[in-house]
Amino acid sequence: MSRFQQFFILLVFAPFSWSSVFAQGVLEPPLPWKVKLISGETLKGTISKWDFAGIDGSFGHAPWSNFKPDDANRLCKKLLDWRQASQYIQLARMLFSLQGADKLADAALQDAIRRDRNCAKDVDALRLEVAEHRRKIVEDRRIAAEKDFQAKAVGMNDLANKVEAPRVKPWNVATDAQRAEALIEMKADADRWLKQVNLRYCIVEGKYWVLYADLPLGETKELARRMDAMYETVANMFALPVGLNIFHGKAVVIVSASDEHYRAIEMAAFNSMPPPGAIGLCHMVGPKVVVSANKSADENRFIATLVHEASHGFMHRYGSPARLPSWADEGYAEYVAAESFPDSTTKADRKPQGLKWLRDENNHVLDVLHMNYEDGSWPGADAIGYAIGYLAVDFLVQTKGETFREWVKDVKAGIPWEEAMQKRFGWSGAQLAKAVTARYWGRD
To answer: DSSP string covering 105-121, please?
Structure first.
């Protein structure tokens, strides 16, 4: 058998388990037959024995998967007992395992029912079996791709370079059933919160998000579309497999049309009150991601805030729960908000603030790099941490984008950020601060 045939059989259309009750027979006299296989080779000789797995004869053994669907269907019909509905069901089973043979399989099932209407339950059972078999193939491929992604995201598969094992555990890769259960759980949480505050919101489910919005349905749908587009932009930046959803089920986004409703949701869901002026927050509870926001009158500011907070959720679920340092965590979210849509307010707000502060000789970028959530030093006076974090990430992505992505992977693997910076860029924290300052001292 050729290598192409082995690949075709094992990877693309994995065969079903064959039951011992399948028909089989010895042909007397042997049947002469000539046919071209899917490999392009010609099979010629006499058939002496057959079953629903293949044929045997002077040419050796040939599984049905070696044949073009029309040829397999035509020969098998010549060999089976046309009076028995059960044999047409087995023919359909065989055809369902071949590429592009579903119509032929459906026709075989119709032939079975015409011969015996009492076999309808067996026909339905086969259809369910085929659907589950194919679903499992898709699931197995998705899980394999996701495990490979998780390994890359925390540096586990770079064995050739002898990269140390990750210091944190990656997120678990869920089965389809677990993902469905997680989505039900996320929706139940949101429904419970909305009932607590006695509010009714439009609900739109996108590819990666479930949106609950105190907005007209059309506006909610457009917002869901933009959120999905944002996710795919960020996923592309980090080379995720196309269509991979890294969230626990899906992330929940709750958008309120008033500050009063926004604060009520925050209190009901998280027993917290947003700080003055805040119009959006991302809550990461274990594997769950929930974004809550107030749709302010300034549309561009609202979208920039929503994208910023959603970026936190993405990064939380990227590889592992390990968190980037505050300057990179917030700076990256600001960078995504700046790059995701043309009218983002981030560049207009953060960049001028950061440039003005950085060009004052009394200010030092290294001080911002050492600010953090834990000791309360973040984000500094006038929230300068956001502006400098944005400039730092913008500089790293624009000049050394691939290296920045590898640095993120190292941090998500549990390596301290300055150690990872030294490893990937050859810089200490002080040298990074110096490079950022030099980059923006005389240019915008």
So the answer is: HHHHHHHHHHH-GGGHH
- Whether the ω angle into residue 379 lies within 30 degrees of 0, i.e. cis, is yes
226-230-234 Cα angle (round to 5): 170
Task: Give residue-wise pLDDT tens across range 176-226.
Answer: 999 999 999 999 999 999 999 998 899 999 999 999 999 999 999 999 999
Edge-first strand listing for the sheet containing 42-51: 24-36, 42-51, 54-57, 60-63
Rounded Cα distance, 47 and 59, in Å? 8
Question: Which residue segments constitute the domains of the chain, with CATH numbers given?
Answer: 3-132 (no CATH), 171-318 (3.40.30.160), 321-444 (1.10.390)
Q: How far apart are CA 182 and CA 247, in angstroms?
A: 9
Dist. CA 406–CA 158, nearest whole Å: 11
Phi, psi values for residue 75, rounded to 5°: -70, -40
Whole-model pTM?
A: 0.80
Rounded to 5 degrees, φ, ψ at 252 are -100, 135
Token pair 């980090």 in the structure block, residue? 238
